């Protein structure tokens, strides 16, 4: 069979196909269902409906938590759908290594600055330090405390 003959055969099949399909559909019986209607009347519901849902808490009753340094959730003490009470432990957090190190360094800086201020104050009392040195030590302590809070 040559290509033009094959093309003619496909065109003929495409033209005859729509003519054959409606005839095959007409042969199928129509589906019907017998229904019985009843008048509307007031009565008691015989069946109980149980429904499950996720409760959305209003934004006014939620609390956003922010931390001064990066934290990771170590454990979660509750599961989805569990009722919780005020003050109940929900999760345990752990600071990451770099944040913990920075916090420890800031604590050390505050401790050192406090010691330096105490030393300068004692030296000032003996007139071995100036007021400017005491003020500089006080300023260093305030800066270290601010760094610890941030």
Keywords:
150 residues; mainly alpha; Helix Hairpins
How does the SSE layout of this entry go?
Layout: H1 3-26, E1 71-76, E2 91-95, H2 97-125, H3 131-149
Antiparallel strand pairs: 1-2
Helix pairs in contact: 2-3
Task: Kindly describe this structure.
The structure is a single chain. The protein has a two-stranded antiparallel sheet. It has 150 residues and is mainly alpha-helical. It has three helices and two strands. Helix 2 (97-125) packs antiparallel against helix 3 (131-149). The model has no long low-confidence stretch (mean pLDDT 81).
Based on helices, strands and strand pairing, what is the structural class?
A: mainly alpha
Unreliable stretches, pLDDT < 50, 5 or more residues? none
Q: Tell me the total number of β-strands.
A: 2
What best-fitting shape do the alpha-carbon axes yield? elongated
Helix content: 40-55%
Strand order of the largest sheet: 1-2
| Topology as a string of helices (H) and strands (E) | HEEHH
Name of the CATH first level of the domain at 69-80 and 88-149: Mainly Alpha
User: Can you summarize the main beta sheet?
Assistant: 2 strands, antiparallel
Mean pLDDT: 81
Give a short overview:
This protein is mainly alpha-helical. It has helices at residues 3-26, 97-125, 131-149; strands spanning 71-76, 91-95.
